[in-house]
Chitin elicitor receptor kinase 1-like protein
Amino acid sequence: SSDCSTSQTCEALGSYYVWQGSNLSFIGDMMNTADVIIYSFNEAR
């Protein structure tokens, strides 16, 4: 899955990281950054 949202499960790097939106605040901060990167990457393709 390439969909990524802070309110949904976010899978990055093929499921190496599966983040759930507000489990941990520091993970949430990382996820917000990853959201932008992943979204930009998907849009660029």
